[in-house]
Every structure is written in structure tokens, then in C-alpha cells.
Amino acid sequence: MLKSGGHIDRDTEVITVQNVSKSFGDLHVLRGVDLHLFKGENLVVLGRSGTGKSVLIKLISGLLKPDLGTIEVLGEHVDELSEKELQQLRLKIGFSFQNSALYDSMTVRENLEFPLVRNKRHLSRGEINHEVEDVLDAVGLLHTINQMPSELSGGQRKRIGIARTLILRPEIMLYDEPTAGLDPITCIEINGLINEVQEKYKTSSIIITHDLACAKSVGDRIVMLLDGKFEREGEFDQIFDTDDERVKPFYDYNFIT
Ligand SMILES: Nc1ncnc2c1ncn2[C@@H]1O[C@H](COP(=O)(O)OP(=O)(O)OP(=O)(O)O)[C@@H](O)[C@H]1O
Ligand SMILES: [Mg+2]
Question: Where's the ABC transporter domain (predicted)?
């Protein structure tokens, strides 16, 4: 069962990665990766620690260059863009990084205003207030608007981080381990939020995770990085319908079979 089948436009690819390889010295991390993200889709990327999931995100956002292969994002060839063009493209991408932190000395409101004021200078005070309140409401934390990050729980800080990303109205969201370090109930909340973001803001997303409950809850489609390539692809049950010893432990550990 697709989570959001109605929203996915399978005729439009927002990210196309073709035959991408990336090594660091003798370490061959990605060895011919293909990945297609369709408009409106939530695509989950699974893989063991160190398999190159974060490297893939850095390649897609142009922070790293591939050794081989091509990467297109929203119709642009990332590896051919100037630094200025890359910055423009990155404004259309929302990053929820593994360790993305809020500014501790700023209130929630100030944290959210910061990217807006920096990137959309033409907005009036009233428009800024409206945008801040809209995204805070979307993540269910309007009441924290005047609080400091230190007064929030880990799950709340994660939500504010996602709101800060949404405020620039990205077309694509890249979530790197959105539920890492959170308790199960907070994980469920974050998974719900990822689905709500997809619904409300019509985003297309890549969600990197080790958390199979997250994968199952948010993934319209799942791909699994094994030995530098996406060897398995499909819906949740298809991915784990295998005796492959590189795949089974993920399932067995998460679901304690
Ligand atoms: N800039 C870099 N220079 C050298 N090696 C790097 C660099 N970036 C990543 N690596 C190496 O590439 C490999 C893949 O790293 P990556 O961060 O993508 O793993 P990951 O799949 O995201 O793991 P995790 O699940 O632990 O976050 C690792 O061995 C890492 O040390
Ligand atoms: Mg990583």
C-alpha cells in the first residue's frame, strides 16, 4: 500500500542520479548508483553505517562532486553549476541534517526568521511574522514561539529544525536520520510530521534512516544501499522478502524476530 500514492507524479523526476561513483582514496563508497525521485514521493534510503548515504546527500546538494556519473536536481545538472547557481538551487532544497542544531542564543521565532531575512529580503515585518507562525503551526509548536531552544525537548528541537527548513518553501526535502536518538513515541511524531509536510507543502523527499518503523511509516518506496549500489528497491514488504544475509538482520533487529 502506497502511503500517498495520490500525490506522486511518476512522469516527473525531481532528482535523477545516474551511474554515480565516489571514492575517497582507496575507499570506494559509491559504485555506480542510480536513483530516481518522483515529484511528490517520499523515498527512503536504507543502508548500514558507512555505506555512503550521507555522501549521496552531499553529492545531490553539490557539496561533493562525483568521480563518475551525472546528477540532475529540478532539471539542472548539479555538477555543471557555478557556486552561485548552486546556492540558488539549494534554496529549493530543505536539509534536515543528522546534527543540524538551532542557534542556542536565539528564540524559536528568531531561529525561524533567520533564513527568511537572509534569503528573502523583500518581505515585510507582517509577512515574516505570518510565515514564521505558519510553519510553527504546521509542526504543532506555535506555543513555543518565544522560548529558547534549551527549554525544548529533543523531539521539539527536531521539529523546529524542520520548520526552519520549511520556511523557505523547498520543493525537495532531504532528511538525514530524522529519528536518530529519539524515543519511540517521538519517532512516531516525527514520522507523522514527515507525512504531513509531504501533504501540506507538496514536497518530494529523500529520507535516510536505519529505523525500519520510520521507513515503513513514511516510505512510498524504499531503496537499500548494499556494497555501493542500490541493489534492492520496492515497497517495505518487498525489500525484506529475502534471505540475503546483508538485508535480514535489519529486519530481525528492528522487529525482534
Ligand atoms: N569528505 C570525506 N573524506 C573522506 N572520507 C569520507 C568523506 N565523507 C565520507 N567519507 C567516508 O565515506 C564513507 C561513507 O560515509 P557516509 O557519511 O556517507 O556514511 P553513512 O552511510 O551516512 O553512515 P551513517 O549511517 O553512520 O551516517 C565513510 O567511510 C566515511 O568515512
Ligand atoms: Mg550518515
Answer: 15-252
Grid coordinates belonging to 78 = 548539479
**172: its cell numbers:** 525537495
For the chain, count helices (H), then strands (E): 9, 10
Place of cell 529533543: 154
Could you say which architecture CATH assigns to the domain 11-92+170-255? 3-Layer(aba) Sandwich (3.40)
The H-assigned helical ranges of the chain are 53-60, 83-90, 108-119, 125-138, 154-166, 184-201, 212-218, 236-239, 248-255
Give the CB-side neighbour count of residue 219, counting CA atoms within 13 A.
25
Give the ligand at the shortest distance from the Cα of 210: 1
| Amino acid 256: pLDDT | 58
What's residue 1's pLDDT? 46
For the whole model, what pTM was predicted?
A: 0.92
Grouping H, G, I as helix, E, B as strand and the rest as coil, residue 187 is helix
Q: Using CA atoms, how far apart are residues 162 and 2, in angstroms rounded to an integer?
A: 24
Domain locations along the chain: 11-92+170-255, 101-169
Q: What ligand 1 atom has the least distance to the C-alpha of 52?
A: 18
Q: What is the pLDDT of residues 227-240, one digit of tens each?
A: 999 988 889 888 88
Residues with CB under 6 A from ligand 1: 24, 27, 29, 47, 49-55
Ligand 1 pocket test: pick from 28, 53, 59, 227 the residue with the most ligand atoms within 8 Å of its Cβ: 53
Cα 180 to averaged position of ligand 1 atoms, centre (Å):
17
Are 167 and 135 in contact, with CB atoms under 8 Å apart? yes
